Amino acid sequence: MISRDRLTHGLILKIDEEGQIKEIVFNSLKEKLNLKNKNFSNYIDEGSLKKYFSLLEEAEKDDVVFGREMDLNLIGKTESYILTVLNNLDSDNIIIAANQSEDMIKYYEELMKINNEYVNSLRSNIKENKNKNIPAKDEEIYNEMSRLNNKLVNLQRQLNKQNLQLKAEKEKYRVTLSSIAEGVITADYKNNIVYLNSKAEKMLGWSLDDAKGKKCRDIFKVSIKKNNGHDLELITEENSAVEEDIEIDLASLFQKKEEINNQEAILISKNNNSIPIEFSAAKVVENQGKVIIFRDISERKDNEQRLRKYASTDLLTEVLNRRAGLDYLQEEMNLAEANNFTLSVIFIDVNDLKSVNDNFGHQEGDKLLQQVSNVMQNSLRRNDMVVRLGGDEFLLILPQSDKEAAEKIWNRVREKLKQLSKSNDKDYEISVSHGSAEYSSDYKKSLDQLINKADRAMYEEKKKMKNKDR
């Protein structure tokens, strides 16, 4: 017989075509079970019912259906079992339930022993009855049981082969999942963690032993940025008013969606690190569980950030380039008109840049542009912007500033440029010419007209400076 100390989770049942339990053939559980005449489906967890009925349908066609994992509630708690169904005499089935696939063989051997004992008992009765010249009433049953015994021997060979294949497949998948670059999470139909591969453990900061059985939302914590158009379908009415990043509960999301593909999000690890990830997730139809595959996209996001910077930044001075600067100005003009704000721009021209290039070289001219740019950036408020329009021309964009406020900012820039010129070790003066223009909701001019107005004012100042030098 099987050692009960070694096998604490398993049983063999005989059920009829309606699923009623006719006999508990073997039970290695410590608890006594009162299952007879009850329907076995009552002990199948809700998430495994569909798989159980599918198993019974397969058993009607095949001699044996091997190894289906299901959740059973036999002793007041839900546990995972491997079920195998064997065709028996007439319309009955034998169900073997073991807590591990490796134990399935041992339970099958137990069934073989029970069957052999029954066959040997019948053989002994037949022999005894023949000696007493009593008609062999058991001979027909003996022949049928012998046939079944031969069938069980063949099934055992199949089961051994199937079990070896199953162990090989499990090992192959374990090695594969452990070695891939993506994190893999599986959860059951109750959204409890079942498995993490090594990459998932590393990124999440959780070991499989610590995470197993915990809610998926407590281990795989992800949020998305509301302003990302790609994520609009993940945003519910409840969190649509939230301004910051939105935490996503996959369990709730899966009530509406069957799968999620290539979704960008921020993963919050156990030690509270934020990791940009891309993940895909899907329901497992067979057991209503979930599979999540995710990967770290930090390097990609860094590259995207650099590309965005290159696309919007003047590489020499590291201020906004012309295209990005004019886009920003248009946005601020629209905002000013909508909210009845004022806005000012200052057109800046670096004086004598051509002379510096001709006399000291273009490297010195580039240095001059960088120095002037740094002075302007360090003289502005947080929402003010410096734009290099090209060559020696810059534009200062000053949101919510009238002409008087703009002039104060200009005076600050001019004083710092004077200090810079005094410390210059080259034989040229550092100076700029400027012209300003104000935009308000009643100033019905275009962006180009606003810039041209400031440009003309700058040239008027430059003309006065030249006349003064004569």
TrEMBL record:
Top-rank taxon: Bacteria
Database matches in PROSITE patterns: GGDEF, PAS
Alphabetical keyword list: Coiled coil
Span of domain GGDEF: 341-470
Coiled coil segments of this chain: 138-176
InterPro entries, alphabetized: Biofilm_reg_signaling, GGDEF_dom, Nucleotide_cyclase, PAS, PAS-like_dom_sf, Rev_trsase/Diguanyl_cyclase
NCBIfam families recorded: GGDEF, sensory_box
Protein name per Swiss-Prot or TrEMBL: Diguanylate cyclase/phosphodiesterase domain 2
